[in-house]
Amino acid sequence: MAGPRKLIAGNWKMNMLRGEGLDLARAVADGGVNGDVDLLVCPPSILVGAVAEALTGTGVAVGAQDCHEAQSGAFTGDISAAMVRDAGASHVILGHSERRHGLGETSERVRAKVEAAHAAGLVAIMCIGETEAERDGGKTLDVLSQQIDGSLPMGERGFAISGDDTVIAYEPVWAIGTGRTPTLDEVLAAHAHIRAHLQESLGNNANSVRILYGGSMKPENAGDLLAIDNVDGGLIGGASLKAEDFLAIAAAA
Ligand code: PGA
Question: 156: CA distance to ligand 1 center in Å?
Answer without folding.
Answer: 34
